[in-house]
Amino acid sequence: MGSPYLISAYAFTALLFGLYAWSIARRKARLLRELEDLRKKVSGQ
Amino acid sequence: MQTLRVIWAIFVKDLRVEWRHRETLASMCVFGVLVVFLFNFAFETAREMSLRLLPGLLWVAFAFAGVLGFNRSFAAERENASLEGLTLTPADPGAIYAGKLLANLFFMTVAEVVIVFAVSLWYNFSFIPVLGLFSLVTGLGTLGYVAVGTIFGAISANTRMREVMLPVLQFPVAVPAFIASIEGTTGALRGEPLAVYADWVNLLIAFCIIFLVLSYLLFEYVLEE
Amino acid sequence: MIHLGVTILWLLIAVWMIFFYAPREATMGEVQRIFYIHVPAGWTAFLAYFIVFVGSVIFLAKRSQAADDLAHAAAEVGFVFCTSMIVTGPLWAKPAWGIWWTWDARLTMSFLLWLLYVSYLMLRSYVFNPGRSALLAAVVGIIGFVDVPVNYMAIRWWRTQHPQPVIGGGEGSGLEPAMRLTLYFCAGAFWCLFAYLVRERLAIARLRRELSAARRASAPQDQKEDRG
């Protein structure tokens, strides 16, 4: 399966979805962390 | 009756504002003529050649001139917060849309006459023998283009970078009107009978009906606070 | 978690099928295997825009926050699929047709869909007043969706070069059963991935709202403290 076109197409798609999934996971983790911080702050008072 | 009065009042108001400042029409016409002027350097202007290029040239000039006009149409209202005033009146939002549409149609028509005159002069092309069918196609294309331009102008007035936002919204949606207008104009300028490009004229009519009705119905949500 | 597991497993099987189960295409060779991501990505992109449309209509009619969230999520994820379609297309066209791009009906349509996604997402991030962005985006989503079939008619009459649809073209439309099975299997995998990403994106929208509500709830206390 030596075609550079084939490899580029699959590499691009894998990279694209990988990056998007990573960005979603990061956004979600940050929101969860901020929410947790806020909860701690509120209950600490 | 009430609706017609609102439409007329808004139309007259826009013309009066324009008469005092003369900003919209001046920028549309000058910009359109500049596009025609620049094209002159990009293409050979032999007559047979220009018959193939003229429709595209005309519609590119119309499209850019139109975007300038639609942008101004609501930007000024937004800056002076007069749109809020309009929405407080019991007027039907659809009527406000129709009034703005008529004003934009009027400005576009004036700009198009100026652009066509410049093209006719610089490219040595007489529009007079084909004026009837050319006006029919151009009129329908302009109506369709203004129908979406008016609602997108109102939308982009709410955004940062509205000068970019308007064409980004407008051009993809206006593509069918653009294609049909160019194909129809090509037929008209070649002096072909209407039957040859009737499909394109029908498509333009369909485009006008669909987007006039849709915009009329949706305009209420654009004005809503 | 189950959804993520199923998605990954499905994708892995799909990749295996593409490279080891589906036969090698006679004229185009290995490059034809781009087909299995290009076509399903396109289907998913069009499906996603349909969801944007439905979400927009429901939002305008019922003012349901969930519908607006769904439209926004579908637009963002659909844009990723559309980008995948529009990049893999030229990578297949170059070896198959000898050119990267041609303005034929389907290519123009797919580029147009991509532009509609761009304008929708740009609008969502550039509106001054966040309260209005949902309303304006819904209007744009509806107009954009109605524009798709009109555009399709116009562009179809204008020019058509693309190979006729290989699927659903009746008998003798030329797709081997093993290829067809692989294609459908890949489409299923993509839809599963799409659903997973949309769900995650919806969770983000919900968390964001929760966070700002929690901030608002705790803000008065902070102010009291400051004064004290």
Task: Write a structural description.
- The complex is a heterotrimer of chains A (45), B (225) and C (228).
- Chain A has one helix at 4-44.
- Chain A is mainly α.
- The N and C termini of chain A lie far apart (63 Å).
- In chain A, 13% of the residues are buried.
- With 225 residues, chain B is mainly alpha-helical.
- Chain B has one domain.
- Chain B contains 8 helices and no strands.
- The longest helix of chain C is centred in the C-terminal third of the chain and has 51 residues, at 177-227.
- By secondary structure, chain C is an all-alpha fold.
- Mean pLDDT of chain C is 85; it is low at 167-172 and 224-228.
- Chain C has one domain (31-162, 175-214).
- The radius of gyration of chain C is 21 Å and the shape is globular.
- Chains A and C meet through helix 1 of A and helix 2, helix 3 and helix 6 of C.
Could you provide a short overview of the structure?
The complex is a heterotrimer of chains A (45), B (225) and C (228). With 45 residues, chain A is mainly α.
Q: Compute the separation of the termini of chain A in Å.
A: 63 Å
Number of strands of chain A: 0
Output mean pLDDT of chain B.
88
Number of domains of chain B: 1
What order do the helices and strands come in, and which of them pair?
The complex is a heterotrimer of chains A (45), B (225) and C (228).
Chain A: H1 4-44
Chain B: H1 2-21, H2 24-42, H3 47-79, H4 82-88, H5 93-122, H6 131-156, H7 162-189, H8 198-223
Chain C: H1 2-21, H2 35-62, H3 65-97, H4 105-126, H5 130-158, H6 177-227
Helix pairs in contact in C: 1-6, 2-3, 2-5, 2-6, 3-4, 3-6, 4-5
Features:
B: 225 residues; mainly alpha; 8 helices; C: 228 residues; 6 helices; 80% helix; globular; disordered C terminus
